[in-house]
Every structure is written in C-alpha cells, then in structure tokens.
C-alpha cells in the first residue's frame, strides 16, 4: 500500500559501491607494485580476470551470508557479525586464489589486499549503516505500520521498541477504538498508506472468520502482515521450520551450542581469552584493586554470590567486593544511590572492573566470556514465574558480557516489566543464533564500552 521510493535503489547502489571498492583496491595495489608492467597486456588481462572472479565470488557469497538482506531493525552488533563472517570467507577466498593461481601479483600481495579490503569495507559499510540510521531517525525512508488485535506482552514490547528506536524508521498509525470492519480497515490502509500490519498470533478478541477476511484484504491491497508470537504461550523458540517436500513442518530446534564442535570452539576461545586477560592484565591489576578495597573499607577483597548457571546449576560467582559487608548483600538487589556501596566500589561498578574476577569462573568452566548474565537466585526465581521461556537462557553458560549488555539492556532504569522481557529476549536470541564471530563482535563492543564508559553500568 505504501509506495517505496528509496530502498530498492539503495541496495543496488551499495552493491555497486562494494564492487567498485574491491576493484579499485586491486588496481591500486597492482599499479603501485608493478609500475613498469602497466602496458603488459597479458598481465592486465590476467588481473582483470581475477577481479571478475572475486566480484562474482563476493556477490554469490552475499546470498549465503545475507550481507545485503538488512532489515531496518537490525542492530549494529548483528550487522557487524554478518559483515565479519562474510569478510572472513571472502578474504580466505582471496588468499586461496592467490595460492593456487599463476598470477604472480596476487601471490605476492594477497595478504595486503585482504587486510586493506577488510579495513576499507568496514569503514565504508559502517558509515553507510549509520548514515541510513540517521536519515531514518530524521523522518526519511520510513515505513507506516499499525498494530491490530489483542494487546499481548509481545505486542507491548514490540511497540515499545519501535517507539524508542527512531532510527528503525517506523511510524505507528493508530486505528483507534472504531468498530473493526474490513471496509473501514481497508480505507484506513489507503488513507495512512500502511506498509505493514502487525498481528498477534493469538487473537481471542477477533473471530476466525474476520481474521481470514483481514488476511485476504491485506493480500489484495499489498499490505504485509507480520505475525507476533506470544512469548509466554508459544513454543516458537523450541521449534524450527522444515519441509517434507513442499509441506512445512515444525521440528524440535537444535541450538548451535548443542553441536560438540561449536561447544569445543567456544570453550577453547574461553580458555585462551581468559588466560590472556588473567596473565597480561589481572596479574598486576588485581593487587592494585585489592589494596584500594582494603584501604577503603574493612572486609574481604572478593565477594562470592550464588547464581544460576548452565542448566540451572548453582555456582559461586566471584566479584570484587563493592559494598560494606552486611547480611543483606547476598539477597538484596542494588538500588539507585545505594548507601551500601563503598567509594572504590562505586568506581569498580561504573567501570565494570568488579566483574574481572569472573574470568576465574570461566577457567573453572562455570561461566563463559560471552553469554547471558547470571542473575541473583531470588531475581531468577521471580522472573521465571513472570516471563515465558525464561529458562531457555540457561541452555548456555552465563557470561561476563552478553548481547543484552552491549545492546544497552542493563541496569534497573525504565519500566522493568518491559525492560527485563527485552533483556531475556536478547539472551534467547543469542542462544538460538550463537556463532564464534558473534562472540568476537560482542567482546570488541564490550571493550569499546569499557573505554568509553557505559552509562548504565552501576
């Protein structure tokens, strides 16, 4: 129903720009390294063929990595994961082509080509990503959408996200409290130029006959319908869509870390990364923090608290002590301007340095570098009864950092009934979509947040 003016051209333009950059980098290195051979026709033809092969490989690979299939609600963290995955395979292709080909230039310069392309394309595509986000936040390239049906928790969360994230470029149009009739709905679509209708899967207040008519009218009027599953009553997290010939079926999902090779890769990464941090940083940082804690207040240096871990096994999570010692620390959550927090403890919390001892938990196999953050036992028990599919997050080891944390979903600010559900959904997304590249991107983003300072850390 809504006329689309820019999106299709933007995608074509980005693809062409990527191809031009790849070609120009290749030509630049060739000319710089072979100034005396510029008029050698055979050599130029050989390298032109290499450019064509790399371009075709780039385009074919993008279909697999979904590099150009970018929904407007994609976050930069997930976009980086997709880009890095694509680039690693592409750069491996460049190195392999240089190794097996008879092209002397490609053999000698394949590593410099790979490094240069990675840096240039990362800067270029990040700039385009944020430029598009900025334009959408300013009201350019938007989508008119509407919600219809029962006001479920899932719908409330989705509306909250779209209202907060102006850079997604959604404009929510309200149908109001008028009687739900197909004719009135179609007139509303035409008047407001609706692009997408968001519709809960479970609509107890709309009869099946009317629901069928709405779907038919949407198809005729070119209005997309997006179904919103209920996060409490629906098992969509536990199933995936497969086919027997052309008949769709739902089969029990197997999460990435259920596969032993993936589990082994993650464990190797955890051990190596933790050893590097503990040896190179914690070996000198821990004594300094320990002295400051002892000077600031009486009590132990470390604070151990029971948390739920992998498959809800209870373990002792190690942190630097940031509060005056009292019996409430293990059972009462932190409050704003909490008087129990010491001066050095306030600094440690805001810088997240109080979490550093948890690398010991990682080495012991109780935690992972990246994963859902472990909650206090009483917090876990409270939200298990409140949020459906909460326990899915326990199917992987808890982490020192996680997707929710680098996405700004931390702290106790805002409406916690919504914010905690968004946090849990981010954790579940991580469980279902884990990859080693995603872990790497989350670690990099955590490092930048640590240097920059996370306003929600406390």
Automatic annotation (TrEMBL):
Protein origin, superkingdom: Bacteria
Bilayer-crossing regions: 12-31, 43-62, 83-100, 112-135, 271-293
InterPro entries (UniProt xref): Bact_transf (IPR003362), EPS_sugar_tfrase (IPR017475)
One GO MF term: phosphotransferase activity, for other substituted phosphate groups
Domain Bacterial sugar transferase: 266-450
Protein location: Membrane
Membrane topology (UniProt): Multi-pass membrane protein
UniProt keyword Signal present: no
Entry keyword set: Membrane, Transferase, Transmembrane, Transmembrane helix
GO CC field: membrane
Pfam families membership: Bac_transf
NCBIfam families per UniProt: EPS_sugtrans
Family: Belongs to the bacterial sugar transferase family.
Name of this chain's protein: Putative colanic acid biosynthesis UDP-glucose lipid carrier transferase
Species assigned in the record: Frigoriflavimonas asaccharolytica
């Amino acid at each position: 129903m809504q006329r689309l003016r820019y999106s299709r051209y933007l995608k074509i333009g980005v693809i062409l720009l990527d191809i031009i950059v790849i070609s120009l980098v290749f030509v630049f290195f060739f000319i710089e390294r072979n100034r005396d051979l510029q008029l050698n026709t055979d050599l130029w033809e050989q390298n032109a063929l290499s450019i064509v092969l790399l371009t075709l490989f780039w385009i074919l690979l993008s279909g697999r990595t979904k590099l150009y299939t970018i929904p407007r609600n994609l976050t930069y963290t997930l976009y980086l994961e997709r880009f890095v995955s694509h680039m690693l395979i592409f750069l491996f292709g460049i190195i392999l082509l240089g190794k097996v080909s008879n092209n002397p230039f490609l053999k000698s310069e394949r590593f410099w080509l790979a490094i240069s392309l990675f840096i240039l394309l990362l800067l270029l595509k990040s700039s385009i990503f944020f430029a598009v986000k900025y334009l959408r936040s300013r009201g350019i390239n938007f989508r008119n959408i509407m919600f219809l049906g029962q006001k479920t928790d899932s719908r409330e969360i989705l509306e909250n996200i779209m209202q907060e994230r102006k850079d997604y470029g959604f404009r929510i149009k309200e149908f109001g409290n008028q009687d739900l009739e197909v004719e009135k709905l179609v007139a509303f679509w035409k008047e407001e130029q609706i692009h997408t209708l968001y519709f809960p899967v479970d609509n107890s207040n709309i009869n099946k006959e009317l629901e069928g008519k709405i779907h038919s009218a949407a198809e005729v009027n070119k209005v997309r319908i997006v179904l919103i599953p209920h996060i409490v009553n629906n098992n969509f997290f536990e199933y995936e869509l497969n086919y027997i010939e052309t008949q769709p079926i739902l089969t029990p999902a197997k999460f990435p870390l259920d596969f032993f090779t993936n589990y082994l890769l993650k464990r190797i990464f955890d051990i190596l990364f933790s050893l590097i941090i503990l040896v190179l940083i914690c070996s000198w940082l821990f004594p300094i923090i320990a002295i400051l804690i002892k000077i600031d207040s009486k009590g132990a240096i470390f604070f151990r608290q029971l948390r739920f871990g992998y498959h809800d096994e209870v373990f002792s999570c190690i942190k630097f002590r940031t509060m005056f010692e009292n019996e409430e620390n293990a059972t009462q959550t932190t409050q704003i301007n909490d008087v129990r927090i010491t001066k050095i403890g306030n600094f440690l919390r805001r810088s997240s340095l109080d979490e550093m001892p948890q690398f010991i938990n990682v080495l012991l196999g109780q935690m992972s570098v990246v994963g859902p953050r472990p909650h206090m036992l009483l917090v876990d028990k409270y939200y298990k009864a409140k949020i459906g599919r909460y326990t899915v997050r326990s199917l992987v080891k808890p982490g020192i950092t996680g997707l929710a944390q680098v996405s700004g979903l931390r702290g106790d600010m805002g409406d916690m009934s919504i914010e905690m559900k968004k946090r849990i959904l981010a954790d579940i997304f991580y469980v279902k979509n884990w990859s080693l590249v995603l872990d790497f991107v989350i670690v990099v983003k955590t490092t930048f947040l640590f240097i920059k300072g996370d306003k929600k850390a406390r």
